[in-house]
Automatic annotation (TrEMBL):
SUPFAM superfamilies: P-loop containing nucleoside triphosphate hydrolases. The lineage of its organism: Eukaryota, Metazoa, Chordata, Craniata, Vertebrata. It comes from the Eukaryota. Belongs to the sulfotransferase 1 family. Its EC number is 2.8.2.-. This is Sulfotransferase. It comes from Smutsornis africanus (Double-banded courser). The keyword Transcription does not apply. Keywords: Transferase. Transmembrane segments: none annotated.
């Protein structure tokens, strides 16, 4: 099992923009309205912190590899090598480069009309890291940090995300 996790602040930011483009999902007049719903577990697919907490039970299983979105963005070649190794797949240098190129956000966004139709415009927005800094106030940041510590702060997944959030920022 490959478990891909992401900075909860960027998850919230990405999901906020996603809900704006998806009419079947609840819409929010403001970022503050969305943030309140996100933090009070009123999201269509549940609470991200609870999701992380549930997966944390399996983080040490030998058949589970956890990788962060941030790791893949920072070093996609190493990420693909590690994933291939985990699954016991041997890649030539040419195959490795092909997978890295074809799985890049830019490539997937460029091909999104072919792969996902009109839905591609909703799925592929920026694909960056730390876009949360454009929406979060100091109060939002403090509330998210507190919730993070309460739910997953001392766990394996929490430690991995905390490293990506604070040590590499």
């Amino acid at each position: 099992i490959l478990l891909l996790i992401r900075n909860p602040k960027d998850v919230a930011t990405s999901f906020y923009h996603f809900t704006k483009g998806m009419s079947p999902l609840p819409s929010y007049e403001t970022w503050d309205d969305f943030f309140t719903a996100f933090m009070t577990k009123k999201m269509p697919w549940g609470c991200y912190f609870e999701y992380l907490s549930k997966w944390n039970k399996y983080a040490d299983d030998e058949n589970v590899m956890t990788i962060t979105y941030e790791e893949l963005k920072e070093n996609p070649v190493l990420g693909v090598k590690n994933i291939a190794s985990f699954f016991g797949i041997s890649l030539t240098e040419e195959e490795l480069q092909s997978v890295v190129e074809r799985s890049s956000f830019q490539s997937m966004k460029k091909n999104s009309q072919k792969t996902h139709g009109a839905f591609g415009n909703v799925l592929f927005r920026k694909g960056g890291v730390s876009d949360w800094k454009n929406l979060f106030s100091e109060d939002h940041n403090e509330k998210m940090d507190k919730a993070f510590e309460e739910h997953v702060g001392g766990t394996k997944l929490g430690t991995k995300l905390k490293y990506e959030l604070y040590c590499k920022a």
